[in-house]
Each structure stands twice: as structure tokens, then as C-alpha cells.
Amino acid sequence: MPKTFYTERDIEDLKTRGVTSLVLSDDVVITDQARERAMKLGFELMREHDQPMAAPVRPYIASQPSPAASPPRPAAPSGAATELEKRVVQAVQARLGSSVDAKLLETIVKRVLNTVGRG
């Protein structure tokens, strides 16, 4: 039986036609870009048996050590880190608007700055 392939463009076309979910089976293949686009557009990706799909397994990512597993870096002076955090948070909020949870954004910015040694 032939397989059906979905690309990012196919997902956008489906959304334009009002489709909000896609049932995947062994005969349906969705590209990584199409999967990411579908998630951004709020698609519900389901397996044949009506089970929501989990995130794809990406062993190349899992094989990398987590930044949280690294020893903590010395913190920068709190005033400088706080000012940098504020600037980054404001820039992201200006770009994305109110679609981002402010508390979550602050937590992410702190983690990223700590990981790169600026927090």
C-alpha cells in the first residue's frame, strides 16, 4: 500500500481548510518540519487508535548531557544579571506579545543565562 507524506506546506493547507487534527498510521508519514508546524498551529496529531502522539524520540538529543547536570557556574553580580534578565524578558515580550506566560518566560531566561554563565 502506498504511503501518504505530509510536509509543512500540506499542514498549512489543511489548517486553511479548517482541519485541526490528523490521524497518523503506518501508511502516513509526516516530516519533522510538518510536525513542528502542526504543533504551532494547534493540530492534534493522533495515532490510528485515537491515542495522542508523544513527542518524537530523538536519541541524538538525549545523548547530550543536560546543562542542569553540569556543575553550577559562579553567578554574576546580581544587579547586572537582573538588568540583563529584564532586557531579555522585555525583548521577548515585545516580539511575542501576551501569548507568553510571564513567569515561565522569566524562569527560562534565568536558566539560559545561568547555562551560558551570564546569570
Task: Characterize the structure shown.
The chain folds into 2 domains: 4-55, no CATH class; 73-115. It has 119 residues and is of the alpha/beta class. The model has no long low-confidence stretch (mean pLDDT 77). α1 (8-16) runs parallel beside α2 and α4 (78-96) packs across α5 (102-115). The protein has helices at residues 8-16, 32-40, 59-62, 78-96, 102-115; strands spanning 4-6, 21-24, 28-30, 44-47. The chain is elongated, with a radius of gyration of 20 Å.
The rounded distance between the terminal residues' Cα atoms is 55 Å
- Main sheet overview: 2 strands, parallel
Count the DSSP helices: 5
Protein structure class:
alpha/beta
| Average pLDDT figure | 77
The gross shape turns out to be elongated
- Strand arrangement within the widest β-sheet reads 1-3
**Approximately how much beta-strand content do the residues carry?**
5-15%
Helix content: 40-55%
User: Strand tally, please?
Assistant: 4
